[in-house]
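Batch manifest, entry 17 of 40.
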Amino acid sequence: MPEGPSITVRTSSAQETEALGRTLGRLLGPGDVVALTGELGAGKTVLVRGIVSGAGSTAHVASPTFTLIREYVGPVLLFHADLYRLDSPVHLDDVGLDEILERGGVVLIEWAEHAGAVLPPEHLWISMTFGAGEDERALRFTARGPRYTEVIRRMAEQGQDRR
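Output type: structure tokens
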């Protein structure tokens, strides 16, 4: 699927990144898929913590690097996958990512570039990069599909389009 519209948001602290996640979390619903990419330490799990909170869960969010997938219960079911430790796309079958995508919750995938063909064509792609300062980040949100074009539009309306 071709890329749709995108916005870039800059944050200057982990608290701002988490707040941005809360904004996004309030806009997501069952069946939504968010693909996260960025270097180690870019803040993917910090953003996920905000998304989970914004979606209404009070669960403690930790990186699922060793468990690969965590599940958070709230008004909407959320799944948090971390594909960093996957050696090859063949291991996706062992993780069960395809199964959680079918369960109808919000699916948040860190290191989504490892998801390959399992990643649905329609999703929200978020690329995180380091900024000039130690805690500065640039988050580029790219819509892949009409649902995520709407999410990006609503984020921009809420003042999250800070280039």
